[in-house]
């Protein structure tokens, strides 16, 4: 079964009528369409003859739409608007969708504050952020790119570029340090709660800061994400341990201060940007990878 062919008047006649209905003069309609006034008048007369309906009353210096002409012009204008919208959508480039998998702490502490710069540079890329501590897979989770903490090698089919060295530092609110005094001795340290994340690396930091030995801290607050421990430190609730690049903006902005200057811990694992060597969307993957490396100071 086939569709019945549509009975449509000539397009040029419809355009001439639409232009004349909006200006109510054949002269202005002719200027808009780039034809002669006589051509517009002829197209409208032909349309009226084809439809068997008078669309205009011809007045001495202008035109007036008949009731039938007014109703037809309104519907015809909507049809032309739909054609214009469909054409604009066809000519607008489809955004390039790309899914990046990151940890929640990386997303909130580093990526999200820099997203305006990314969208300004790459408005053509529709970036979708999958923030999870679960390791996503490139196949089953439709992930194109990932930022992950670990040690190479990551697999023969993967491209991995170092994004950030993992350098852990102890930080606290400057207001808290001013109120309680810097923790220069074990007794000083006892005044501070320690804010823990899931990595439990405080013992290594304290061994460097207090090589003679340290008593256990009187209070410990534990979080399952580094970002929560950092926010707690900014709020003045204790000392946090975090990757330097996670807290770099806060150190520069004065929201946090280093607690033990010169004390750093490296775990041997770092942050890498990872993608398949043969990605499904090569161009946007390459663009996002380059932006990440440039923003991290690696390019």
Describe the structure.
The protein has 299 residues and is α/β, with parallel strands linked by helices. The chain has three domains: 11-91, Orthogonal Bundle (Arc Repressor Mutant, subunit A); 96-162 and 269-295, 3-Layer(aba) Sandwich (D-Maltodextrin-Binding Protein, domain 2), CATH 3.40.190; 167-266, D-Maltodextrin-Binding Protein, domain 2. Helices cover 44% and strands 20% of the residues. The protein is built from eleven helices and 13 strands. The protein has helices at 11-23, 26-33, 37-51, 67-91, 104-121, 174-180, 186-189, 202-209, 226-234, 244-253, 282-295, and strands at 56-58, 63-65, 96-102, 125-131, 145-150, 158-164, 167-172, 194-196, 220-222, 239-243, 257-258, 265-266, 270-276. Strands 7, 8, 9, 10, 11 and 12 form a six-stranded mixed sheet that branches. Strand 1 (56-58) and strand 2 form a beta hairpin. Helix 1 crosses helix 2. The longest helix is centred in the first third of the chain and has 25 residues, at 67-91. The radius of gyration is 34 Å and the shape is elongated. Belongs to the LysR transcriptional regulatory family. It comes from Novispirillum itersonii. This is LysR family glycine cleavage system transcriptional activator.
């Amino acid at each position: 079964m086939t569709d019945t062919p549509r009975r449509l008047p000539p397009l040029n006649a419809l355009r001439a009528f639409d232009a004349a209905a909006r200006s109510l003069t054949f002269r202005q309609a002719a200027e808009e369409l780039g034809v002669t006034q006589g051509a517009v008048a002829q197209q409208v007369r032909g349309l009226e003859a084809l439809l068997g309906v008078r669309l205009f009353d011809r007045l001495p210096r202008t035109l007036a739409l008949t009731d039938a002409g007014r109703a037809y012009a309104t519907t015809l204008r909507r049809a032309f608007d739909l054609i214009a919208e469909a054409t604009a959508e066809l000519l607008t480039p489809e955004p390039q969708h790309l899914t990046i998998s990151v940890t929640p702490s990386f997303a909130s502490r580093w990526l999200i504050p820099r997203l305006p710069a990314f969208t300004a540079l790459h408005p053509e890329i529709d970036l979708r952020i999958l923030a999870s501590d679960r390791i996503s897979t490139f196949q089953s989770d439709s992930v194109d790119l990932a930022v992950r903490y670990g040690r190479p090698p990551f697999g023969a089919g993967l491209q991995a570029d170092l994004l950030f060295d993992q350098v852990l530092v102890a930080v606290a609110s400057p207001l808290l340090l001013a109120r309680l005094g810097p923790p220069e001795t074990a007794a000083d340290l006892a005044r501070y709660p320690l804010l823990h994340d899931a990595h439990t690396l405080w013992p290594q930091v304290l061994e460097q800061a207090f090589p003679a030995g340290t008593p256990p801290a009187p209070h410990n607050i534990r979080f399952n994400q580094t970002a929560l421990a950092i926010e707690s430190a900014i709020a003045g609730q204790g000392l946090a341990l975090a990757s330097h690049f996670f807290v770099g903006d806060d150190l520069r902005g004065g929201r946090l201060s280093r607690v033990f200057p010169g004390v750093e811990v490296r775990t041997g694992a770092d942050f890498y940007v990872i993608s398949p060597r043969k990605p499904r969307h090569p161009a946007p993957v390459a663009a996002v990878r380059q932006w990440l490396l440039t923003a991290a100071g690696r390019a």
